[in-house]
Amino acid sequence: IMMFLRCHRSKSVWAALCVLVLCWLYIFPVYRMPSDKEIVDEVLRQGQTWRRNQTGIDLYRKLLTECCDPKRMFAVTKENSPLGKVLWYDGELYHYHTVNNETYPFFVQDIPLQLPLKKCSVVGNGGMLKNSACGRDIDQADFVMRCNLPPLSKEYVNDVGTRTHLVTANPSIIEKSFQNLLWSRKAFVESMKAYGSSYIYMPAFSMKPGTDPSLRAYHALADSASNQTVLFANPDFLKKVGHFWKRRGVHGKRLSTGLFLVSLALGLCDEVTAYGFWPFATGLDEQPVSHHYYDNVLPSSGFHAMPEEFLQLWQLHKSGTLRVRVGPCVHHVDE
């Protein structure tokens, strides 16, 4: 009898637990990330139709201003980071840099942009740009932002354009492509000429190993009398933007450079169009798409949550807050 009672009691407990779990799932359903095919189908249904929504644009600028203050904080300046200011690295716990007499002179006095910017192109490096003929559309913007020193050589011009006003330079690129600038700076300085008189936006205070290469890049350009201006990303801004998107469902270890730039553009620009944001291996025509427009080197797995990021951008596209170009840019014959 005792055995029967214990067995009956344990079944009752399990039944109660199952009911509780089912109730919980009903009230708080588990989020399921749509499959690549479902996302492609959704994009095809929407098509290229887009209507600007000034209310949505104003709302996102307000949200980003309240959380992250991009107009004042997106770069480290003498104004927001005086001598003695502690810059906590946003990509590492427990590491920081105290602004001193060595680093303070590297900072611009204040944010050097004429704000608000009008029409902005934010150019990702996705393979969707290949054979897109979007170069002219990209270049027609008043301000063009690019990611991680992408190639702009002759064979890519028709697809990605030539103009650059701000380009990010990840310290890992300085390490891999230019041997951390420890032996020679000539190749780096020559390669930077492709970006004209642009701002070079570097996360020097995101990860400790990236600080010295970033400062060397600053010296290399300054010593060559380059007409480019190095802006160091403010780690406090990057951290707050990361939290902003995490609250909206992006769960990667770190945001992609592209989403950081889109966030910056939404805070600074009257109108934003994003190009080259397509993290899927198949295009709208069900044909393979390379990871980048210039190669098919895949990123480290698990670092970024690119499909989640794209879904956020696509929601903003559907609401008219920004425009995401996902197909070829069609030009009329009489243009």
Structure explained in plain terms:
Its EC number is 2.4.3.8. It is found in: Golgi apparatus membrane. It comes from Electrophorus electricus. The chain crosses the membrane at residues 12-31. There is one protein chain. Helix 2 (36-46) packs parallel to helix 12 and helix 3 crosses helix 11 (257-268). Helix content is 39%, strand content 11%. With 335 residues, it is α/β, with parallel strands linked by helices. It has two domains: 1-30; 43-325, sialyltransferase cstii, chain A. The termini are far apart.
Main sheet properties:
7 strands, parallel
What integer is the average pLDDT? 87
**Order of helix and strand elements from N to C terminus:** HHHHEEEHEHEHHEHEHHEHE
Helix content: 25-40%
- CATH homology-level superfamily of the largest domain: Glycosyl transferase family 29
SS class? alpha/beta
* Termini Cα gap: 90 Å
Properties at a glance:
single chain; 335 residues; alpha/beta; sialyltransferase cstii, chain A; 2 domains; 7-stranded parallel beta sheet; globular; disordered N terminus
Topology, pairings included?
Blueprint: H1 2-27, H2 36-46, H3 54-68, H4 70-73, E1 86-88, E2 96-98, E3 117-123, H5 135-139, E4 143-146, H6 157-160, E5 166-168, H7 171-178, H8 186-192, E6 199-202, H9 211-223, E7 229-232, H10 235-246, H11 257-268, E8 269-275, H12 306-318, E9 323-325
Parallel strand pairs: 3-4, 3-8, 4-5, 5-6, 6-7, 8-9
Antiparallel strand pairs: 1-2
Pathway: Protein modification; protein glycosylation; Lipid metabolism; sphingolipid metabolism; Sphingolipid metabolism
GO molecular function: alpha-N-acetylneuraminate alpha-2,8-sialyltransferase activity
Protein name: Alpha-N-acetylneuraminide alpha-2,8-sialyltransferase
